[in-house]
Amino acid sequence: MRLLRDDHAGLSRVMREVDAQQSMLQTSPETARPVLADAMRYLLVYQHSVHHPREDRLFARIRAREPGLYRNMDRLVREHRSGQQRAEVLAGELARTTMAQLRGKAGLRLARQLQQYVVHTREHMKREEAVFYTGSERVLRASDWAALMEGASQRDPALDLNRLATRYPRLAARLAEAERSVTGRGESLGRRNAVRQKTEHLIEACAALVHRTLDLARRVTQPFRR
Amino acid sequence: MVSWQITTASLFSRLTVKQLLQRDVSVQKLRGQIGAIERLFPDHPPGFEVAHDHPLPNCDADWLRARGRRTDRVVLHFPGGAYVARLPNMERAMLARLCTAATARARIVFYRLAPEHPFPAGHEDSVGAYEQLLELGVAPHRIVVSGISAGGGMALGVLLALRDRGLPLPAGAILMSPLTDLTDPHDGSRVTNAVRDPVLSHKRGVEMRAMYVGGETEKMTHPYVSPVYGDFAGLPPLFFQAGSTEILLDDSRRCVERARAAGVAAELEVWKEMPHGWQGLPFVPESGRAIDHCADFIRERCP
Question: Is the ipTM value over 0.90, yes or no?
Fold first, then answer.
């Protein structure tokens, strides 16, 4: 169970980065795409190919011990398959789409799909934790765990940045950085922001003037109100 | 693109909260006016139970638990409010969203406020709340400490104190737009973002900060008051979030720098164009995303 939980820790770390990078895909595709490509490869090679089969075997053991325990176990298995298919499609699109296309509507669409993938993955993890993880420790026996752990030596590379760097260098380099910028999708900086800042400045000055006038009016009228 | 909700919230704050913080009003009036914002939030977040079991000796503390969901992850949260005011309903609503996203329960510590109770009263309440969790049998590796604004500074101060006392440390800490330097240096983001920040202003900062230390300004550089001056060695992983327009942005940056120099895993997310404490605004899409990132951190540190 510890192994499965660690897998979710690594997955959560990568999900955070995928969400941050997808928001910059349209405006900075040259930096976001390589990181996202590494992240999708990690998801397909480790999470979908190693972690989910592990969980599927666990589901099967639980079903054998207590068939009526969880009604949504089939749903979780189905989500593993659909998640993998979605990740394969996204990785393919990411590789095929040109930089120029990423700066346009295709980039925006792909960013939305990546965000949806992140949302689905987080929801799936929550369902597994809330319903499944707590119960399996009660239902399964030592022999079940021993059988499940047979040949399960592979550890999540996302838990160790040095190990991650050997296979997914751009993702590892990004995760090692002290600061990351997170934006809304299609964030445009520059002239529009400069105009916005000037408007904000003006609004603030007007608001301050109104508040000061109100304060003064209150002070002046105070003796009469008494 | 920044959402229309955050643009509206920032404009509203620029016209009201920021003006209020710049004006010469009493603490009572400040509390009253900030408290009016509370009407936007329900007493109890839907689907959550607010319990008052395990009271603390000197301050209130809530348990926030999702109905019908069991979990051993605990978020120990310290509210914001410049150490003089607070918005309990807003904090509960934010924590409920965090707990839902991270499958956790929360303990919110309403530490004593200045000027009635200057430092170290609130700090001792907060450290006591962590010690109580350990006494209740909660494993330290299942606890993540969190705080927003002044609560973020409080959370860091608590971590430093726990380390100094040799207590087992929590799994990590989430610091949302933390106030970590009460000496209020007039450089960096405090100057460059003075106009851009739609919430905070340091026009009345001197007075408010003096209240927290009971007028003893020499305490402002104490690491439990201004954690940025502390030694971060040995602290658990730290996750900072701050908005790019905040005057407090550099408070986070400097802490991350110091923490990493001391060998602590620390990272900062700078959210473009977000105002101070946007994580607490439930109707803002960027708030939901930021809370999800915090939940990812919790899942990462407490698998």
Answer: no
Cis bond before residue B115 (omega within 30° of 0): yes
Closest by CA to B75, choosing from B100, B43, B51, is B100
Highest mean pLDDT of the ranges A39-43, A147-151, A212-216, B217-221: A39-43
Average of per-residue pLDDT across A175-185: 87
Confidence (pLDDT) at A192:
65
Catalytic residue among B246, B252, B286, B287: B246
CA distance B235 to chain A (A): 16
Does the annotation mark B246 as catalytic?
Answer: yes
Q: In what order do the strands lie in the sheet with B143-148?
A: A179-182, B266-271, B238-243, B172-176, B143-148, B74-78, B105-110, B60-66, B48-51
Name the minimum distance, in Å, from the CA of A85 to any CA of chain B. Answer: 23
| A193 has pLDDT over 80 | no
What average pLDDT does the segment A36-51 reach? Answer: 94
Asked if B212 and B83 touch (Cβ cutoff 8 Å), the reply is yes
Q: What percent of chain B has pLDDT over 90?
A: 71
- The two tokens of residue A217 are 């009016």
- pLDDT, residue A80, reads 93
Enter the pTM of the model: 0.91
Catalytic residue among B117, B123, B222, B276: B276
Rounded distance between C-alpha atoms, residue B159 and residue B53, angstroms = 24
Tokens matching residue A216: 């003064």
Contact A136, A40 (CB under 8 A): no
- Taking the C-alpha atoms of residue A94 and residue A117, their distance in angstroms, rounded to an integer, is 14
Residue A28 phi/psi, 5-degree rounding, is: -130, 60
Structural domains present in chain B: 4-301 (3.40.50.1820)
> Which is it for strands B48-51 and B60-66: parallel, antiparallel or unpaired?
antiparallel
> Do A130 and B300 make contact, defined as CB atoms within 8 angstroms?
no
Chain A within 8 Å of B289 (Cβ-Cβ)? yes
- What beta strand segments (E) does chain B contain? 48-51, 60-66, 74-78, 105-110, 143-148, 172-176, 238-243, 266-271
Give the CATH fold of the A2-176 domain: Four Helix Bundle (Hemerythrin (Met), subunit A) (1.20.120)
| Known catalytic membership, residue B126 | no
Q: Does A127 touch chain B (CB under 8 A)?
A: no
Q: List b or e across A154-172, with b for residues whose CB sees 16 or more CB atoms inside 10 angstroms.
A: eebbbeebeebbeebebbb
Residue A199, pLDDT > 90, answer no
Give the type of residue at A73: M
Q: Are B135 and B106 in contact (CB under 8 A)?
A: no
Contact B268 A204 (CB under 8 A): no
The amino acid present at A225, given as its one-letter code, is: R
Say whether residue B131 is in contact with chain A using an 8 A CB cutoff.
no
Spatial distance between the Cα atoms of B147 and B145, rounded to a whole number of angstroms? 7
